[in-house]
Queue: 4 jobs
Job 1
Amino acid sequence: MKTFLLPLATAASLSLSLLHGADSAGYFDLGQFTPPKSGGTFVEVNLKGNLLSMAAKIAAKEEPEAAELIRSIESIRINVIGLDDANRAEIKGRVDSVRTGLNAAGWERVVTVQEDGNDVGVYTKTKDADSISGVVVTVLSQDGEAVFVNVVGDIKPERLAELGEHLHLDPLKAVKKAAKEDAAETKK
């Protein structure tokens, strides 16, 4: 996970348009996080409003497709917390709590990966058959980090792979496929 930490924060800060926040169906309250007592990794990125608008304008010159994607995003929140003996159980409990809350709120778990000490869950909140209003990613990595991501917007499923590329979140690439399969099921 550490290999994507810096690119994740950099891509998020460079590549993301208006916060509707808690009023938006795609928003999920991940709660507050505190840095590990051991002084390990702690990253918090909250992008919304004018910062995202500026990023879209900057991206439009060199990457018009990326700018279009950025304009569809209302907000993005990323938290990366280093795990140590003092916070491991608390953070694992937080991951479980977030996942339980997502299930209870009607979010659909579209990606589950549990291998090589990694535990990844990707959830989507669909707006309609053609778009997703939110994506939440939870990760417990073998590298000793937990990652929480909430992307809010009017996101077209076919753009999720691109979003995954920009944020270096490989599980989002699988969301595109799952969303298409779900849309096909809905039309039946």
Job 2
Amino acid sequence: MRIFITASFGDSKENVEKLCSVIKSAGFEDFCFTRDVENYQKMFDDPKELMRRAKEEIEKSDVLLIDMTDKPTGRAIEAGIAYALGKKIIVIMKKGTKIKDTARGIADEVIEYQNIGDISPILKNSCELG
């Protein structure tokens, strides 16, 4: 099962790698557009091409995972694409984070964590159940 991990240039490479590692430790294939396509640098001068490529990668994925701890903007667009494509969407957030009802409305599951590693067993169970 391939999990598309949303990330933006504002996310540190260390945080992206940590989240990807958690996905792998749960037994899933991790994919992060920022890491795997853009190599942590701006690769697209044309925003339409950027979103076309992101959509292609979301289409290849089974699940989209988005961390809503910090208010995402571009990442929320990827979540909207996944929702429109009928993909499973998992929202993760640090305990105490408030998210909008619209985010809850597209989420198949919302996972709160204290430490990012806490999501691994929950994620494994959630994705195995379909």
Job 3
Amino acid sequence: MTLRYALPIMLALTSPASAVELDSLTDAERAAFRAEVRAYLLENPEVLQEAIGVLQQREQQAQTVSDSQLIADYSEELFNDRHSFVGGNPAGDITIVEFLDYRCGYCKRAFPEIESLIAADANIRFVVKEYPILGEQSVLASRFAVATLLVAGDDAYKAVHDTLMEFRGDINQASMTRLAEVLNLDATAIIEQMDSDEVTAIISANRELGQKMQISGTPTFVVEDQLVRGYVPLDVMKQFVAELRE
């Protein structure tokens, strides 16, 4: 079997009919075909690179479609759950949802860039999903933030959120009490609220939503109908927003 015949069969491997064509070969023809393909690929390794590129592109396209469907399926929980903090412009034309953990280094890295994006764009609605996945200190921080939102409202939550995103020490009840006092909040009321059923229900709902959205790491962003897994630079986030507006 010459390369003239091997290549069409190699290309046919991408179609369902390929298995039938290979089955029609004799053992000797199949061995010759394999040897011919191997020799061709060794002489032309760029073909493998091209094929891998095509495969990755197809997988990315399939993932994008899957992510868009997940967002559509759980849009109400993502964008309008009535328990998550909403910052930026609540009436903005673009909504960004962030699943975050206060102990996550990449979340901390993304924090000033998201703040810059919101400050520079008055039409972004920003929703925070407390998603503690990095241990007990993460859970404690999220409980404190959610309790602050319930006890003292949006402005107090934002102050706590911003401070926790920049906080580098151990997170424990003593440090959270000091934080509340520094921010002139009712530390006693917030600490008491932290272990309430309401706080537990909110964090559990976020975890359940994250699992349904197949979110395994932080930060994860939902930008309208796009799911962005992991940290992205400010310029890339600006590009997402600009493309959505187009």
Job 4
Amino acid sequence: MEDRARAARALVFLYVDRVLVGVAALKRPTATYRDGKFRAAGVSALKSTYSLELGWVFVPPDHRGRHYSRVLVSAVMSQADNAPLFATTRSDNPAMQRSLENVGFARAGKAWKSKRGDYELVLYLAPPPNSR
């Protein structure tokens, strides 16, 4: 994980009253990882446009419901220099989906089963493919 964090383009830490209430990153994923996500979503033709990923967004349970994920997502996007971004989230996480949509991401392709657990993932893109 340390190597991945060092390779990230930006790490964002959100503090409120000196308490860490959230983290996020602008990641530089490998082409293999990126291609796998786009293939799983059924939108492989779009993969080469997206070299940066918004990820590692986490707000501890006792700080949720305060829109901190929106703040984190916006902060990460401000570090992307308007580059196209992709993100994945669980299909059963409407709060994160709203956070992504509120800053210009759009869902792309179909949901797919995660290899890490009994849930599905969805792909989000910013800007959406039809806005370019």
